[in-house]
Amino acid sequence: PAFLNPTKPVGPYFTKEEADKFMAENKSVFVEDKARGGWRKVVASPEPLTIFNMRSVEKLANEGHIAIAVGGGGIPCFYKEENKLQGIDAVIDRDLASSLLATQIHAHKLFILTDVPKVCINFNTPQEKSIDRMSVSEAKKYMAEGQFGAGSMGPKIQAAINFVVRSGKDAIITVPDLLGVDNGGTRITVV
To answer: What is the pTM of this model?
Structure first.
């Protein structure tokens, strides 16, 4: 489904004329960003299905090392034929990739680090409220209400939901300074 509706902006800004030329030449999709005054290419952002090097990451983590992986989401590819991978014009969301990796290596917890200490509903309104803890069902309800931006907190919440549902363990969204602090961040739980 993500390839039918590309939404992830990539690359530099172009004029309408330049964007029209690229779209005619190579069937790329461009959208106007009125706030920044230009046109940008958009690509699909599919949900990741597997992490190819997860065993290496799991081994490092089990040996007590801090493994940094899927920071950029990974390299999107598909099997063109059996045992032959081919890259594809897409962007893998780093939060969804992190959630999948954490599930695959049986992590005890998923920490999603961002630039706000806690998840908020009614963000940037007089009714803004930070959340200490929410269940998967509450998180899904808030997602359905459109409480979390598609390009900002939305993927983080979805990644947390995916991890909690798949693993039965908690996910925490917070800033690096609150990592490991009691009641630091927003905890997403099964119940």
So the answer is: 0.84
